[in-house]
Design goal:
Length: 330
């Protein structure tokens, strides 16, 4: 990498969020992204390339051209990085926060195990204690559950959990929140969380925003995503957060907070076995039948089986790209 390119990269922090990059700067970043993807074979090259191309797209005057470029590079990155990603060991401890036994991280956990992460699971609804601090944790995964993010009177552990998430976000610890998890992130940052107009239940499409297409984690997805929706609450956008994906029913389907805080309202990590367990949770069955009618949970389970393979493939790739960025941070 030439000195001029190094200087350009080192100055990006001052450019992002300020004036748009010039055409020459955008071209240089895209060239650097291509070099990183194919020039060295280093294990950090693919996520670096995706990150750089995302910056270029986010700052481009010609957004359509830049987004087209990042998607083209993403397809190449998928092929070029597949061989090293499976072997890219994380060697870090990951805190997993659960709120019901049948909502573990699913295929996200499979990826963590395959990449050598050490998982510390805290099942809050079972009375497990939160860690006193996040020292030593490389990332936090916060999952779903049948309660509301604001049910602190019924579930007193929600308040200290949100305090811990606030500490993670303010301290730059990578966070990945799913369903209730993203609502907890929003609530932790002072945004309103509460019932939406109607429950969103079904295997339904999720569409990218322009920011989502430019994002290094979400941009390379095969859009629209097919996702399992099973929620009634929604959340206002926290200050500083960016919307990455939306659905016709709910605008806030995926968000990014800071550099490595990500939240998903939907599920793509769930296989048919987990979905079957959900179909026996009374609160989940009730919401499904309110939207889909009698026997709605059974029909939903059938839809999950039909879409299971595509959802899990996307989940592995999406989560893997986030882990790539987490690894660069270390």
């Amino acid at each position: 990498m030439g000195d001029s390119r190094s200087a350009l990269v080192s100055g990006l922090a001052n450019q992002i969020g300020a004036t748009p990059l010039s055409s020459a700067e955008i071209d240089a970043i895209l060239e650097l992204a291509a070099t990183a993807a194919h020039g060295t074979g280093d294990r950090t090259s693919a996520p670096l390339a995706s990150f750089l191309a995302g910056i270029a797209a986010a700052n481009a005057e010609n957004r359509e051209q830049a987004i087209s470029e990042i998607n083209r590079q993403a397809a190449e990155l998928t092929a070029s990085s597949a061989s090293w990603r499976a072997d890219a060991r994380l060697n870090m401890e990951v805190l997993v926060l659960q709120h019901i036994a049948c909502e573990p991280p699913g295929v996200f956990e499979d990826v963590l195990v395959q990449r050598g992460a050490n998982i510390r699971r805290v099942e809050l609804d079972e009375g497990d204690a939160l860690p006193a601090s996040l020292d030593g944790f490389g990332a936090v995964i916060v999952m779903g559950g049948p309660m509301s993010a604001v049910d602190e009177a019924e579930h007193p552990w929600l308040a200290p959990e949100k305090a811990l998430l606030r500490e993670a976000l303010s301290g730059g610890v990578p966070v990945w929140g799913v369903c209730l998890g993203v609502q907890l992130l929003a609530s932790a940052l002072g945004a309103h969380v509460g019932p939406g107009p109607a429950p969103e239940v079904g295997v339904l499409p999720v569409h990218p925003t322009p920011a989502g297409l430019a994002d290094p984690v979400f941009g390379p997805c095969d859009w629209p995503l097919t996702a399992l929706q099973w929620h009634g609450d929604t959340f206002d956008l926290p200050t500083g957060a960016v919307v990455l994906a939306s659905s016709p029913a709910y605008e806030h389907q995926a968000i990014r907070i800071g550099e490595l805080g990500y939240g998903l309202q939907f599920h793509i990590e769930v296989d048919a076995g987990l979905a079957d367990e959900w179909s026996r949770v009374p609160a989940y069955v009730a919401s499904a039948e309110r939207v889909l009618g009698r026997g709605g949970a059974d029909r939903l389970l059938s839809d999950v089986r039909e879409s299971e393979r595509s959802m899990l493939i996307q989940a592995r790739e999406l989560f893997g790209r986030w882990l790539d960025l987490c690894a660069l941070r270390r």
